[in-house]
Amino acid sequence: MADRRQHRNRLISKYFLQGLQYKEIQAMLMEKHAIGISMSQLKRLLKKMGLWRQGGESSLYEIIDAIQKEISGSGECMGYRAMRRKLLTKHLLTVKGDTVRHVLRFLDPEGVESRQRRSFRRRIYHNLGPNYVIHIDGWDKLKPFGFSVHGAIDG
To answer: Most buried of the four, 36, 48, 91, 149, by CB within 10 Å?
Structure first.
């Protein structure tokens, strides 16, 4: 019995951290896992697990540290909405959008400015020689007529 509860709670936590709404979590539990719970029970379980949508925020130091890690890695081109989602799903931090926006403006003013201008910053990468990296693209507009168009270039 305890294993079933732990499994249910893990699923609820997983779906919550993916950003699903309460009704969506309820539907996923019912359709995929045959677990039926009421909305009040779902909210009670989320509260018990310390998961909430509104209200308190994580500490500002944790938020700044996580944003710095994301900016130095793959999150350098993220806006504040995507960064907020990443903080919730990857770092399990509860944070308001305004807080993320202000911290991003403080930590990465050039990035915020380039995103506001919608200018594309080309990335530099190094490869080890010819035929090491191949870029492939397809054009499917003619696929209903039996033509598949694909191209590749050595990058």
So the answer is: 91
| Bridge partners, residue 50, by sequence | none
Cα(100)–Cα(62) distance, rounded to whole angstroms? Answer: 12
CA distance between the termini of the chain: 55
What backbone phi and psi angles, to 5 degrees, belong to 143?
Answer: -60, -35
Q: Which residue has the tokens 């909430």?
A: 52
Q: 92 by DSSP, 3-state: which?
A: coil
Neighbour-count burial of 78, counting CB atoms closer than 10 A to its CB (0-12 exposed, 13-18 middle, 19+ buried): buried
The encoded tokens of residue 119 equal 């200018």
Task: List per-residue pLDDT tens for the chain, 155 residues long.
Answer: 788 888 999 999 888 878 788 899 999 999 999 999 999 999 999 888 877 776 667 788 888 899 999 888 877 778 888 888 888 888 888 888 888 899 989 988 888 888 888 766 677 777 888 888 888 888 888 888 888 898 888 87
Task: Count other C-beta atoms under 10 Å from residue 98's C-beta.
Answer: 10
Decide: 52 and 93 in contact? Cβ < 8 Å. Answer: no
User: What six digits make up the tokens of 55?
Assistant: 């209200």
- What sign does the CA torsion over 7, 10, 15, 16 have? positive
